[in-house]
What we know:
Blueprint: E1 3-4, H1 11-23, E2 43-44, E3 55-62, H2 66-77, E4 85-92, H3 94-102, E5 109-111, H4 115-123, E6 139-150, E7 170-171, H5 179-192, H6 199-213, E8 214-216, H7 221-229, E9 235-239, H8 240-248, E10 253-256, E11 260-270, H9 277-287, H10 290-298, E12 302-303, H11 306-311, E13 321-323, H12 330-339, H13 345-352
Parallel strand pairs: 1-10, 3-4, 3-5, 7-8, 7-9, 11-13
Antiparallel strand pairs: 2-4, 5-11, 6-9, 6-10, 6-11, 6-12
Helix pairs in contact: 2-10, 3-4, 5-6, 6-13
Amino acid sequence: MTKRTPVLMTLAALAIALVLAACGGSSDETSGGGGSGSSGSSSNANASNTSGSKATLNLVAYSTPEVAYDDVIPDFEKTTAGQGIGFKSSYGASGDQSRAVAAGLPADIVALSLAPDVDSLVRAGDVAPDWADTPTKGMVTNSVVVFVVRRGNPKHIEDWSDLLKPGVEVLTPNPFSSGSAKWNMMAAYGQASDAGRNPQAGLDYLARLIKQHVKVQDRSGRDALQDFLGGNGDVSLSYENEAITAQRRGSQVDYVIPRSTLLIQNPIAVTTRSKDATAARAFVQFALSPQGQQDFANWGYRPVDRTVFARNRARFPIPSGLFTIDQLGGWTTVNRRFFDPEKGSITQIENQAGVSTAK
C-alpha cells in the first residue's frame, strides 16, 4: 500500500489530530439541509441468509462501505444478539438514499456519508432528533479526503496545487447527489482558504478546479472511483478507504494524503419506524464494538473507537494540516453558503460549468 505525506507532522499536530480522528465528533450545527440530487438508489440484497430469521433488518447506506458491511453483518450474526437476524441492504449515493428513505424506502438502520443526510430524515420524522447524542456523536467511521492516482503517480500529484497543473484531469462526484463529493469540495475549499480564513481564495481555487480540471461528475463516490479505474482522468478525489479497498482488490493505483485535508465523519442511526428497533440498536452497537470497528479498519476506515484506532494507527498517518467541517462553520452554515440551490457559492460555480444541480 503506497501512501505519501509531503511533510512531517509535529508532535503537537499529531496529538490534536489523533483526538479528532478517534473521537468521531461532529458539529453541533448538523441540522442543515441534507445532500441533494435526483431521486433513486441502487439496491443490493446482502448475502445474509434470511431464511428462518427471527427478524430482517433493512440497512440503507451510502455507496462505499458495502465491502465493510459484508464483513460486519456476518460477524454480528455470530453474536448472541445477532443470532437469527437477517439483512436486506441498499447502497447508493448518500443524498439519494436519504431522500429514498424519506419517500418510503424500508429502513431500520441508515448509514450515510454525512450528518445532514441523517438530519433530513429527522425533519421527515424517520430518525429521532437525539440520534447524535452518543459517545461518538452518532458517527461510526472516519476517513480523510485523498488523491487516488495511477500506479507510480506518473503526473507527480503531491498536493492540491498539482491538481491545477495544465493537462491534469480530475474526477469527483456530483455534490448534489453524493456526500463524498461534498467532503471533496469542502476539502478543496478548506485547504485553499486556510480552513475558511480566506473565503475568496477557497472559491477561486474551486472555480479553477471545477471549470478547468474536473472531467466528469458521477452520481456517487463509488461510481466516480469506478470511472477512474476504468481509465478516465489522472486523479480521483475520494475517501481514503475507497483507495485502500481498490488496492485490496488488486487495482493498479496509489494514493496521496495531502498535507492539508478534511476529516470525514460518517454517521449511523436507527430509524423511528424500524420494525425491530432492539435488533437494529444491537447492530449499531456491534458496529461500534472493537470487532465491528476492526472490520471497518480492515477496509480502510479510520475507527472511531480510540483503542481500535490506536491499534491501527500505523496504517492511518495523520496529516499536519488536518481540519474539520466545524472549522468551516459546521454543516448548517456550509450547506447554506455553498450548496443552497439558488444562492450557494458552489451551486453557482457548478452551474457556470454546466453541471446539473437539480434535486
